[in-house]
């Protein structure tokens, strides 16, 4: 949960004009208020028996509350708490963005349903067969463009690189991008960020029929799934899906790393070059060599 975005901080950063909680209009909205202290949340937390006699406790901060929860030894309380807290946070953000969310009085029941569903799915779990992506790059259909994206981690500089290459059915470059960003928490997050950059870039290029190809199975699965992505990169996946509505046709597919070498090279290039860098044809020669090698898969 991104604690940096609580309203008190947004006020300091002048994103919002008031630090008062949108729900109760009474107290300053810091994290502990947004997730626990606010009066309107009492009805949500009341559903959890163990918490009933603690509703009036004023915790110093979220950590203080969380430590209380995990030390309670009530079976599965931490799981239920985490899900409900996530829903409350999601609702808070949705309210701000004027998008829909569950009413407070349905949050707890929704959590119970979801946990039950999760439990049932785990009991039935059959290892999911993911068709493995191909091991080499292949051209898109004649009217399409294929966009390969990749991320690279630069732990020493606490940054990450993003590489994007756009090619037509003849394997010719229509555009390429190399950029840097702050180091996210996980590899998947970098891949998700790379995908979002790819989509934004292709919108700028004005292409309409596009195949996006990355080497992260996790991200490809999340992009093709109809269920909400609850991972740390879920909001990026949501962005990508809504941006993708700009295209006439779009798909997100997986390729093994050996098939994504051009994007990989561009992501790694970002470490040493001024960023962002964009190319239309005059691509660096070491990248050009990899593009030519991929061209042998064009009929
Ligand atoms: Zn409040």
UniProtKB/TrEMBL annotation:
<dbReference type="InterPro" id="IPR044730">
    <property type="entry name" value="RNase_H-like_dom_plant"/>
</dbReference>
<dbReference type="InterPro" id="IPR052929">
    <property type="entry name" value="RNase_H-like_EbsB-rel"/>
</dbReference>
<protein>
    <recommendedName>
        <fullName>RNase H type-1 domain-containing protein</fullName>
    </recommendedName>
</protein>
<dbReference type="Pfam" id="PF13456">
    <property type="entry name" value="RVT_3"/>
</dbReference>
<dbReference type="GO" id="GO:0004523">
    <property type="term" value="F:RNA-DNA hybrid ribonuclease activity"/>
</dbReference>
<dbReference type="InterPro" id="IPR012337">
    <property type="entry name" value="RNaseH-like_sf"/>
</dbReference>
<dbReference type="GO" id="GO:0003676">
    <property type="term" value="F:nucleic acid binding"/>
</dbReference>
<dbReference type="InterPro" id="IPR036397">
    <property type="entry name" value="RNaseH_sf"/>
</dbReference>
<dbReference type="InterPro" id="IPR002156">
    <property type="entry name" value="RNaseH_domain"/>
</dbReference>
<feature type="domain" description="RNase H type-1">
    <location>
        <begin position="148"/>
        <end position="270"/>
    </location>
</feature>
